[in-house]
Amino acid sequence: MEKSKNIYEISYRIKQDKKLNFISFAITPWHALGVMGALEVLKKKGCHLEGMICICPHTTGGVLLDKSFFSSVESDKVEIFTFRGSENVSNKKMKQYLKTIPLRDGEDFFVISPLKPQYEIIEKISLVRKNDRITAVVIDEGLATYMRDTKSWLQSQKREEKKDIISLDEILNKLLLEKYYLKYLNKYKLCMNQNIFIKNHKQELVMNRRAIYGYRSILKKMKSENQITNANDYANAVVINTQPYFEEGRFKSEIDLKVIENACDFFQNQNLSVILKVHPREDLLERYQNLPCKIDTSGGVPMELLLASLKVKPKYLVGFTTTTLVTAKLFFGIEGISLINLVDSNEMEMELKKEFHRFAHYFKEYIKIPNYLQELEQK
Questions:
Q1: N or C: which end of the chain has fewer CB within 10 A?
Q2: Which range is least confidently modeled, 22-31, 90-99, 131-140?
Q3: Keywords in UniProt for this one (predicted)?
Q4: Residue 191, Cβ neighbours under 10 Å: how many?
Q5: What does DSSP say about strands 197-199 and 274-277: parallel, antiparallel, or unpaired?
Q6: Is residue 54 one of the residues assigned to a domain?
């Protein structure tokens, strides 16, 4: 376990050491790649970086990362530790900071976080770096960022809070305040978007080439360090990525198993080998033991890094809505196939049904989403 720090210890370090110019937060392996990709982009812009990487626990999965995930960063210039959590942002202090932005002409300080700016950290840093320009760098959370509407996000936030006493109204009020903060940050160009997709004026998703450069750059650096012991299982194979929808209660039955089993049979009839890569947050691994394919339950390597490290790439990347369906295509040219249209809509919660619909709407140009497996038969 890495050493841990709280917000007050972090603020004190940033106040004392003026060389520090970034702090970042990561929960999942995908976040870890996002942090390192953002650092690559900042270096390309000429920034000389020294700072902190905070490993945050997942609300249900606990701590998913350790220092080994950040092996490509310069160890003498970056401190890595677990983060023990922070207080809620002070609306009064945050508004005071926003008013001072036009007056700040000091050094740049970057706060890197997934999904949205880390406002409570920005507020605290603004008190100890009174002249610095604090830029929020938002890294990719995953495809759920693009799939959920406001209602879905509210329900997701309530699940994440894990407090019965918090109401949807309280969460909505928090989101409205954050929208107000973000408006100010954007006005003064203090929010850098490192999502792999951004929306154009037609509200269509288009590739964010700056973000993709960062991911490709760090994956290129890391692949030489990473040894895949079961590389032969992936070469020219069909890789099926699972997701914890059943464990989360979002599937009403084990419908995912039936869909995956049918996919295994179909691809093997096409003379293709199949390997199942189990999601690292899944606990009920025995669910998969009778599937007719090889099974990889190791969770120590992000899927994108595994793909980057393989000399012979898989033929297809298959799943439901996993981020890797799209990134495999963007980063490595591997065809992605989503099985969402093969799931009985009566066997999933209503919000997941809506998310699947939005997923198909946004990503149909990047991956295949068949209604029947037979559509994939090789001519």
A1: C
A2: 90-99
A3: Membrane, Transmembrane, Transmembrane helix
A4: 19
A5: unpaired
A6: yes
Q: Which long-range contacts (CB under 8 A, 24 or more apart) does 43-47 make?
A: 44/213, 47/21, 47/108, 47/110
Closest CA to 273 of 218, 303, 306, 312: 312
Q: Taking the CA of residue 11 as centre, how many other CA atoms within 13 Å lie in the half-sphere pointing to its CB?
A: 16
Dihedral sign (CA 184, 188, 193, 199):
positive
Q: Which position has the token pair 């490709």?
A: 216
Q: 310 is in which domain, residue-wise?
A: 231-376
168 lies in some domain: yes
The residue type at 322? T
Is residue 45 classed as helix, strand or coil in its secondary structure?
A: coil
Q: Are 367 and 329 in contact (CB under 8 A)?
A: yes
* This prediction's pTM: 0.87
Distance CA 310, CA 330 (A): 16
Q: State how beta strands 294-296 and 335-338 pair.
A: unpaired
Query: Residue 178 gets which letter from DSSP?
Result: H
Give the CATH number, domain containing residue 275.
Answer: 3.40.50
Q: What's the residue count for the chain?
A: 379
